[in-house]
């Protein structure tokens, strides 16, 4: 998950759904993604303790799951084409109307999903789909459609009356994790930890709570613990979708890509569905297999059975297209995502980048300002600052400096709440902050995990500190898996030029610009200048 191990997502916009919050009669708590029933329960004779951060609410989470696979479109453009946007928008509106009236109940359609959920992975070569491409994309394996804040409030209300519901405590913890990630607010993580401890005190062997601990550890970038908790959950329930997904995430973020590929195959065999599919495709993308990643995402999009799944998968397809410099397809995919959920910040963030790369800087700034206002995470903050710098209007330098300063504030808050923020620090500080701090952070992150992203961050931090000979092996390692990243190629090209490898440097820079000519508001222009200078 790219710095999707930066897994720290945007605005609250989904309901905790796939992890069973309560066990209903006859249901197995195996992470099937059939939703949660938070209906009314008799009040206890004495007041029950309030969940952490509880606020009264009568709202209840809704639930939906992807349906069986439809025929796959022939390409990303057809999968995300404008001709389907209007229909998706109508479906999204109907979904919002339904959510306003419904409570969480199992339906015949969900039963059908349980029976046909593996169909999407049974196509040619039994290939599942791609992992969340944006760190800020809310995973439908945890969330459904609706208002996440209302869902949290509903769970809190439920737990006042049913304080011994271990499953509901675990679901509340996952909802807190999503609030932290989608709102860019790490202060929610301690609440999640408290809820998970309560769940485990009630059910010490509960696989839901163990899977929740894996998700929390991954969100805090403690991937060794995430892997250990995921394995513990899977020993109790080999079919836990959340644990299977977290295991893939942890292996990817530890740089164990071969193991991650095996974990994705296992997850697909046990629990095929959008959360597993998206991770599978990301593993393939990391190895340079964009064709497979795209095909599986298109299959997943065709099978999406809810506006939430549609928005999520369409956003991943948009990111995949953007990485390859296909801005037209990317914009079509983001349009489809926003038609399904007009508040989905991951799609809005992606659209901002695609607009900037297409020359619509004003539209890009407007979109990114909206994202940052609702979810001030390091990636969007830096992107907005660079958009201001590239525009160069009166006051834009000061505006950019304010965005970069907010990265430091977020990092301090993240660390205070148990998040390892070294990769975020290294990436932001190398270009827009304390270069020595960037190098310290990059070294610390590399000591913990050897991924293509940490290799690139360390290479660039060494470069900006004038240590290009030391940087070159890391820059080469970042591009060794075949992952098609214009940023990585740009960094490698600059470092190659600085170390006297002029032919290689020119080739790397030309490759970066050929792959995605608008990969960065400032970096793309600098890559062109460096290439022209080298020639």
Structural features:
0% strand, single chain, disordered N terminus
Written account of the structure:
The structure is a single chain. Helix 5 runs antiparallel to helix 6 and helix 9 (241-253) runs antiparallel to helix 10 (257-270). It is built from 25 helices and no strands. The chain has helices spanning 76-79, 85-101, 108-116, 148-161, 166-183, 189-202, 207-219, 223-236, 241-253, 257-270, 274-286, 290-303, 307-323, 327-340, 345-357, 361-374, 378-391, 396-416, 422-432, 435-448, 452-464, 468-478, 486-498, 502-515, 523-534. It has 535 residues and is an all-alpha fold.
Low-confidence segments? 1-49, 55-77, 91-145
The mean pLDDT is 79
Our Rg estimate from Cα atoms comes to 22 Å
> What structural class results from the helix and strand content?
mainly alpha
Q: How would the global form be characterised?
A: globular
Helical run tally: 25
How far do the termini sit from each other? 36 Å
- The overall strand count is 0
Strand content range: under 5%
What fraction, in percent, of the residue positions are helical? Answer: 55-70%
Biggest sheet overview: none
- What is the string of helix and strand elements? HHHHHHHHHHHHHHHHHHHHHHHHH
């Amino acid at each position: 998950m790219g710095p999707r191990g930066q897994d720290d997502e945007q605005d609250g916009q989904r309901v905790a759904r796939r992890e069973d919050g309560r066990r209903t009669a006859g249901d197995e708590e195996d992470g099937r993604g059939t939703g949660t029933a938070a209906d009314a329960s008799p009040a206890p004779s004495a007041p029950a303790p309030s969940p952490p951060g509880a606020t009264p609410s009568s709202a209840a989470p809704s639930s939906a799951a992807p349906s069986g696979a439809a025929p796959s479109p022939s390409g990303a453009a057809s999968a995300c084409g404008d001709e389907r946007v209007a229909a998706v928008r109508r479906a999204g509106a109907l979904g919002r109307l339904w959510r306003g009236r419904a409570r969480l109940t199992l339906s015949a359609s969900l039963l059908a999903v349980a029976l046909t959920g593996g169909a999407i992975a049974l196509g040619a070569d039994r290939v599942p789909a791609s992992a969340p491409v944006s760190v800020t994309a809310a995973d439908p394996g945890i969330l459904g459609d609706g208002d996440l804040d209302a869902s949290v409030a509903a769970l809190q209300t439920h737990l006042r009356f049913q304080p011994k519901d271990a499953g509901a405590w675990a679901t509340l913890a996952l909802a807190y994790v999503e609030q932290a990630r989608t709102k860019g607010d790490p202060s929610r993580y301690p609440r999640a930890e408290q809820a998970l401890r309560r769940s485990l005190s009630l059910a010490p062997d509960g696989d839901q709570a163990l899977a929740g601990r894996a998700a929390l550890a991954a969100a805090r970038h403690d991937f060794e613990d995430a892997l250990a908790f995921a394995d513990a959950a899977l020993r109790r329930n080999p079919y836990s979708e959340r644990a299977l997904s977290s295991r893939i995430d942890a292996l990817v973020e530890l740089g164990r890509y071969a193991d991650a590929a095996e974990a994705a195959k296992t997850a697909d065999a046990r629990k095929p569905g959008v959360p597993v599919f998206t991770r599978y495709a990301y593993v393939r993308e990391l190895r340079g297999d964009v064709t497979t990643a795209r095909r599986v995402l298109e299959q997943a999009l065709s099978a999406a059975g809810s506006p939430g799944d549609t928005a999520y998968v369409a956003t991943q397809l948009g990111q995949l297209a953007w990485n390859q410099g296909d801005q037209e397809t990317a914009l079509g995919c983001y349009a489809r995502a926003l038609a399904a959920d007009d508040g989905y910040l991951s799609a809005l963030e992606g659209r901002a980048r695609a607009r900037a790369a297409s020359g619509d800087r004003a539209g890009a700034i407007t979109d990114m300002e909206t994202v940052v206002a609702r979810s001030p995470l390091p990636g969007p903050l830096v992107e907005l600052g660079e958009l201001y710098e590239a525009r160069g209007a009166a006051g834009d330098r000061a505006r950019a400096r304010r965005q970069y300063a907010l990265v430091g504030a977020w990092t301090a808050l993240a660390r205070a709440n148990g998040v390892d923020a070294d990769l975020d620090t290294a990436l932001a500080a190398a270009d827009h902050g304390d270069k020595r701090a960037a190098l310290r952070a990059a070294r610390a992150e590399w000591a913990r995990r050897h991924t293509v992203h940490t290799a690139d961050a360390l290479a660039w931090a060494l470069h900006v500190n004038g240590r290009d000979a030391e940087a070159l092996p890391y820059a080469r390692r970042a591009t060794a898996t075949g992952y098609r990243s214009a940023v990585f190629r740009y960094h490698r090209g600059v470092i190659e030029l600085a170390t006297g490898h002029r032919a290689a440097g020119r080739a790397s820079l030309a490759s970066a610009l050929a792959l995605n000519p608008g990969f960065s508001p400032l970096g793309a222009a600098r890559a062109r200048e460096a290439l022209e200078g080298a020639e």
